[in-house]
TrEMBL record:
Keywords of the record: ATP-binding, Coiled coil, DNA-binding, Nucleotide-binding, Transcription, Transcription regulation
GO MF: ATP binding; sequence-specific DNA binding
Domain Sigma-54 factor interaction: 309-539
Pfam families: AAA_lid_14, HTH_8, Sigma54_activat
Keyword Nuclease tagged: no
Keyword Chaperone: no
Coiled-coil features, chain-numbered ranges: 272-302
PROSITE patterns assigned: SIGMA54_INTERACT_1, SIGMA54_INTERACT_3, SIGMA54_INTERACT_4
Name this protein carries in UniProt: Transcriptional regulator containing PAS, AAA-type ATPase, and DNA-binding Fis domains
Organism: Paramaledivibacter caminithermalis (strain DSM 15212 / CIP 107654 / DViRD3)
Amino acid sequence: MSVDMDYINQFTDMMSEGFIFIDNDGKIQLYNKKAKEVFGVIYNQGKGHESGRILKGDIVIIADNNLGRDDGGLSPQNLSMIGIEDESIDYGDSIIAIGCYKDNKNSSIYKYTKNYKQDSMSLRTNFLDVQIDVSIDFIGRIINITVNNEIFQIEYINAIGHMVVLDGKTGRVKFYQANGYTIRRESIFDLLMGKEYMAKGQNLEVKVIGRDIFEIHGNIPAIKEFYETAKGKNFNFKDKFIEINGRPTLCSLAPVNRKGKRVGALLKVKDISELKKLIEERNEAILKLEEIENKIKKGEKEIDLFPNIIGESDEIKEVKNLLYKASKSNSTILLLGESGTGKGLMAKSIHEKSKNRDNPFIHVNCGSIPEGLIESELFGYEEGSFTGAKAKGKIGFFEMAKGGTIFLDEIAEIPLPMQVKLLQVLQSKTFFRVGGTKEIKVDVRIIAATNRNLEEEVLNGRFREDLFYRINVFPIWIPPLRERKQDIYPIVHYKLPEISRKAGYEEKHISGQALRKLKKYAWPGNIRELENILERAVILCEGNTILSEHLKIETKDGGKKNKGDIKTLKEAVMDAEKKVIIEVLRICDGDKKKAMSMLDIGKTSFYDKLKKYNVNVQ
């Protein structure tokens, strides 16, 4: 059974949704990685801290938007623990308070508002030589506590109590509140009452397997239904909005039976707070694009600002229009299109027209980096991190791009385990070098590109759905050359002098017949193929004019396939494999056992292929 659970854990950890399974005693048996991330069981943000308790003389900073709610039941009277005794403060008030724990030698500083009737409130002060800046944004639902320029931020849905604690002797941060505080039992009330808090840091997590589901997620109605379903009742629901541990989620509940007996229940969780952020980010980008569109229509901007992107077709004009809009936005850009369409050139063009044009542009070909090196290449490594590491360590591509743009070309080639880490970096713009303990923050513009259909990659489990949503904020489709053949003429006239010069020849020209031959061709390799054919023609041509005979391409229809008919090597192998399986099953009259023997294939692999190729056996 343990082997089975290990396999199930590995499988579900690759999922982009959270999965929690409890047995019929209400004990947690499965809690996958995504669920841990959603509820803060794993918390890899911030520099971390050791476990401990609040001690006498420690500086306590509290920002609570609704006193008594989601803070462990903190009462106005409990504030006396940090020297605040004000009878006018009541439950439901919003308060910012700074004081020393169980030490009245220094006066506390605080402010409050009745039932958070303002849009925001803030408090900035120097307390015992520590610069502290606290703000509560009631509209954006964000609380920031800044200590000596170090920011501790928490977002909330309805109510939250945020707290940072500084060592009274050294002034260093010894505790900060973060996502997952409910599971850790680290409410403000608990900690002020002397409860020990847990350590935070890379790869530290709260142990949940084997624990009671109510202990982790409280006694709310949805968790009761989860428990009762595991016990035998037939509750079930799909994509139901539930707030669990302060996180807005879409949950689906299903009973789990084995041999006709109820053995537990499964809860599938989607974190819609992240989806909400992406929607807000996209809406903001759309608003900016509308403003730019209006400026363009009024003649305040010229759209053709990309002299290196050649063409006059409607298709390429639309691409230039989108590139211009993208250059004026900070949103993540996804360039889509076949190989050879010029995605790298367009990424560079976006950067050169952006406000970060004077900062680095780093082009990363994700498909060319070996799987074992991709993390160290992207994020760098510290001295002695692994065998062969440079003595002084190395900075990664993200640090190289600081303040500028990083172009992640062929992003679909990044392996799944690395996609998880990339997603965290795209969300927080922070990361750790391999072997490092210092969190590095970078302000970079992200442009990604792929020639694959990412939606199909997601459906086939080769690309994380949440990463797809993160990079698909502003997609731009680059049409293949065969769909804009009227651009062939201007591309040739623009490229030919440059190609001639690089090849070491005087400038050459091209005949009308040769141009017509170019226009008849399907161009499976797009502009890159056109450049290669022109370079070869320049070398073959002994005079100054390239003729049709110098163009080594096949334009006749005689049996030649169109680009749409050409399959990749992988697709051809899959087609052949499917045909062999179907033929062998026909010969064996549908007897799968005989078919497996003839194909010399194992049972698991055989059935996987039947499902993969949708082969129905009667």
